[in-house]
Structures are given as C-alpha cells and as structure tokens.
Amino acid sequence: MSNKEDKQINTEYAVSLLEQLKCFYDQQLLTDIVLIAESTEFPCHKMVLATCSSYFRAMFMSGLSESKQTHVHLQNVDAPTLQIIIRYAYTGNLAINDSTVEQLYETSSFLQVETVSQRCREYLIKKINAENCVRLLSFADLYSCEELKICAKRMVEHKFTAVYHQDAFLQLSHDLLIDILSSDNLNVEKEETVREAAMVWLEYDTESRSQYLSSVLGQIRIDALSEVTQRAWFQGLPPNDKSVVVQGLYKSMPKFFKPRLGMTKEEMLIFTEASSESPRSSFCAVCYSPQAEKVYKLRNPPGDLQRVGTLVTPDNDIYIAGGQVPLKAPISNNSKASKLQAAYRPVNCFYLFDAQQNIWVPKSPMLCARNRPSLVCCEGYIYAIGGDSVGGEMNKRTVERYNCETDEWTLVTPLPCAWQWNAAVAVEDYIYVMAHNLTFCYCPRTDSWVEMAARQTSRCFASAAAFGDKIFYIGGLHIGNNSGIRIPSSTVDGSSVTVEVYDVMKNEWKVATNIPAKRYSDPCVRAVVVLNCLCVFMRDTHMNEKPKYAIYQYNMELDQWILRQSISERVLWDLGKDFRCTMGKLYPSCLEESLWKPPPSLFSQDRADEFELDGDVVALPLNS
C-alpha cells in the first residue's frame, strides 16, 4: 500500500466554516474586538480580520499595547465602506459599483486588504473611458496605483483632444501635466492642440501657475507648429515676463522634432476574417493603407473567433462583437450539415482595439450571443442589431445598446422583422436598417421603428454606407420575386454593379449609376468612406482567373464611378470570399508590416524558388 496521504480539500466544509463565522458575526457571538468608524461599532473576531488584512494582522500580533485593545477607532474610514470590507472578510462576497469603488479602494489600501484592492483596480481599469480617465489618472497617482495610472494615462493620450477642456484636466498637478504634454503618444494631428492645452491649464490659475510657465511651455514642440501659429505667438508680444520666457524658448528649441503618435495616423482599410480560404478559419485581421500601399497585421483577439461584427466609431474607436467559436468536441450526427453546425457556438463577446498596443481589450459582453451583428454608432451609443443569434426568430430581431461610459448593455425595441442578414447605417441621429427591399428607421429618442420607402430591387448581402444625408446600397445578391433564386447583383452582361441611393430628407430610393466593374464574386463589394470620399473596395473575379482588388470613387455631381486605385497582387493577397471591410485611422509604427506572400496556387510543382505572376517570372520573397 502507498504511504501517500490523501489531501483532497473538502470544499463543503470550507463553505460551512464561512457560514458559521458569518453566523457568529451576525449574532455577535465570541467576538473579541470592536472596530469603530464614524461612531458606528462593528463587533468582530480578531482571527478573521487578521486573516484578510495585513494591517490588522500586524496590529493584533505586534505584542504592543494596541494588540490588547478591545476597541479600535479607525480614522478617515467611513462606516458603509468598512461594513463592505468586513462582510467580505466573513463571506468572500464583494459588492462593487461605480459609487463605492473609489472609496472602497482607498479604505482597502489603508487596511491592506489586497484582494479587495485588486478587485477595485480591475473594476476601475475596465471602466476607464474618455469622461473619467483624467480624474482616474489623478486618483491613481494619489494612491500610487501604477497599473491603474498606466491605463488611465493611455486613455488620456488617446482621447487628448476631447479631455483637455475637462475640469479634471484643469486641476491636474504640475507633474502629471508635464508627464502628459511630454508624451510621444499623444493622439493629436497638430501640435497646436498641445499648445492650446498648455495655455488652458496655465490660464486656469494664472497667479499660482506662473512659476510653471517655462516648464509647461517647454513641452511644446515649437517647430511642429505651423508658420502662421509661430508668427502669431512669438511676434508682437507685449514686453513682460511671459513674452521673455516664450521668446527664449523659441530661440533655444532645436530645429527638429519627433512627431506625436497622432501625427503619424493613416486612414486604412481594415479587413476582418481576411485570408480565409477555409470557411472554418478563425478571426484574422489585416489593414491596407491606400496612401502607402502597404499591408499591416492586427493582433488576433483571444479565442478562436470568426463571423464577428465590426465597427469604427466617429471617434475612431474600433470594436468587434459577437461571432462564433469552435467547440472542443463536435457533436456527432448522421447529417453532415448538423455536424458542421454543432461544431460551433455563437458568443456574445465584445472587444475594443487598443491601437497603441495593437491588442484587443475585452469589454462587457453583449446580452445576446449572435453571429455577425450589424454594429452602428448613434448619439454616442453603440447598437448591436440582429445577426444569427440563438433562440429562433425573436432573438434574430433583438437589438441592444452599449453605453461607453458605464460599459453596460441594455435591450431596446426589437426589429420589426427577422433577417439572417441586414445592413445598418446611422444618419442624422437615426439608424436605418436594410434587407431585401425593406428599409426601417430607428429613433433612439422614442425607442421606436418606422418602415420607410421600399427599394426597387430585392437584394441581400449588399454593402451600405452613409455619405452626407444619402445612404448608398451597393452590390449584393438579387432575390427573385417568384423563385427566390439569388443571382449576382449586376447587369445582364455581368459588367457592372447595382447601386441604389436613399435620400433621407425625401424618403426616396433611386437607382444610381452602376459601378463599371467586370464580373465579380458576391458579396465582395464593400462601401467605405476614404479621405472624405465615398468609395467601394471590390474583388473582381474573372472566369478562371485569380481575384484582383480595386477601389472605385463616386463623383456625386456627375453621378459617376471612377477607378481610384487598382491594388496589385504583389501588395494584397487573396482575402478570400467572406471578408468584411471598414475604414479607420491607425498608427503604422504600432503595427507589424505584413510582407506579401504569393498564394499557394502560384507555386510551381517542383517547389522551385520562382513562380509566374502576371506573365512574369518572380523570385520568392526571402521571408516566405
């Protein structure tokens, strides 16, 4: 027989022990210490307090006079917060919300209850947004919480143009202000924004902050300012201490500067589920810069996601939502289709892309699991609309709204109809959802849907984009009125792509000029706005030929589509047939450049180091 002891933990006993301790606390049985906060007494057990708090452990085990006290007065600790910590000590349950978390962190740090402090830090980090990031930066600095401070500062840098007018920014300490203004990672397109922020802070309390004039203005990269700004700022100043400091700084500044991160932003086409030759491929995202003609990689989110919804907000925040993940053990079934369906499950995950770190940050999950929901930003809220959700027709109609400030989802009025697919855009504080030949408008203020004018054609899998007060509905598959057969949305000879335009003010649809592209593979037509111009990114697929990509631009006055850019296969490889496309501004220096690699179909049978491309013999890239 083995001499090894069986050391299995009896979890039922552990739970029972906690319950007994809580019972003793509630009935004040065998208590041996009384904590007093704001004249409120809390009879407790020293052993329990010492178990969870280093502060009380040191107090009760020091051997000094404090260890023999029967009553302990806690200064600067409020009674409700102390009660939360005591309840946690006896139960392990911790209730945190927006109104209690900061005071709870302060008290738990003082009492050295590290598990509570850690939970509070995690809660605050998850709740950081543009409205509270400056205040949380000061809070983290005050209590030396480095993890929270780093995250809050990163948000301040990202949302700098929106936060420097806030009261919390005006009340920043001098050291924190210098730390921010000196950062290379400020998301500003012009140095004038940094200059204005510095002046706003100085002028908030001119008398007491005049001593910081030189150190604050010294963070401005003067040669990054426009010549107009430099002349207006440095010439004709009245002869006073301020002008002497400013002019001295100007003369001493070097004639070069490192651009802030925001000055390096480029508009890029972001492709999700790209390079997906297999229908089972996981989430893959790349981005393409039309200006530089370069391709970059985006980090994959945690898990094995696919079929996500994608959104870039007007503030250039990038989100993905929902999708599906493979099951570890597919359920066996006689039907091949059932096997494939059983091998995946829809999820309700929701991620924000941190462009500076090239990572996906998890946010509060949606209330419903759904594949490829339509994501729309309207009046500062994010809406997740429809998608292939679980639970039948009603769940496919569900619509939920995300509050970026509170990191919370709430259900709103569902769609009038259930579709497996829809396109949605926001125009003038209203949301328009289109599928088949139907159009519905959602008013956030009344939480109601209204059916609008119907389109002339019935199409699905089309791409939609808002441009001004017009909505463009492009491409897709025609649905026959009688047979229900889906055919590519193109003219009879297959040489153009259908475009319909909705006038929001007139509630009218009209057919616009088709896009003069050759045969293409639906649904690979994506409407995007590039440099304030309405464009489409298209996959042209000729018979028995490799796919090629192009960007067409729309001329509103002439009602014409013009080829804006053909994209060489040497730059952008095969994205597959099921990619999604949107437009956002990203930092090339924070991304990994993705060098072109030829599709497998181009390689010769003998695996030589050369292959044929467009009639030319090309050598393999060195990193292939």
TrEMBL record:
Q: Which PROSITE patterns match?
A: BTB
Arranged from A to Z, the UniProt key words for this protein are: Kelch repeat, Repeat
Domain of life where this protein originates: Eukaryota
The protein's matches in Pfam families, at most eight in alphabetical order, are given as:
BACK, BTB, Kelch_1
Q: Does the keyword section mention Repeat?
A: yes
Domain BTB, residue spans: 31-98
Q: Which PANTHER family match?
A: KELCH-LIKE PROTEIN 22, LD33804P
Q: What is this protein called?
A: BTB domain-containing protein
